[in-house]
Amino acid sequence: MTLQHSLQQKSVVAASAQRVSAMMLRHWYLLRSSWPRLLDLIYWPTVQMVTWGFLQYYIASNAGFFARAGGTFIGAVLLWDILFRGQLGFSISFLEEMYSRNLGNIMMSPLRPFEFIISLMVISVVRLSIGAVPVTFLAIAFFGFNLYGFGLALVAFFFNLMLTSWAIGIFVSGLILRNGMGAENLAWSVMFLLMPLACVYYPVATLPDWLQPVAWLLPPTYVFEGMRTLVIDKVFRPDLMIDALALNAILFAAGVFGFLQLLQSARRRGSLMQSGE
Length: 277
Known about the structure:
single chain; mainly alpha; 0% strand
């Protein structure tokens, strides 16, 4: 019985991996066959990097302190793009299923909700890599800013930002699933609502005293504070990354729980088959 149980478990894991791979392959084919989708992934990160990069040049040539801290602008732009594009990559992949009226078919297939979520998480990293990696090399060529020079700190920054982007993307996808395409704008705007409080381009101390505790409830705040400390003072703050990871664990669990509850609500209402353009 023990051997049979072990074989059954391996079979379940293999079947699960196949379903996740199938979903990833579907979105990869969709992405590969459409040059406008690829162009959109690269266009905005490039525009932002160039715009803020030249702003950095201006500040660096006109102020002593900003000459030392000017790199924080490009660093903030690149890290913000990881956060925003990670969430958008997840949400757009989900919306592709809504647009094609395929969500009902997926949810009636053997694919489980957590497998669906995992496949969208992986494809969001693929989309992010296509758009962000070339821009990091442009930052080196144009402005001499090497994001990879952060070393292991970059891994901590990236991991925490991706966890936040997935958590928000999962929950927003649940809201769209439950409320229909009327909630589609949340996929494009929700991250910008957090931008002022995440202190992307300025330290938390810039905020009013009463607002600073709210900012410290957001995991990205710790990442951007850590990035500024690394660029300006050449010091990596692991305590900030640990705090961000703890908050991300709570946020991610809440996002998955919210998605599953909204999915159940959509099933009860029969709205899965009514999605689409």
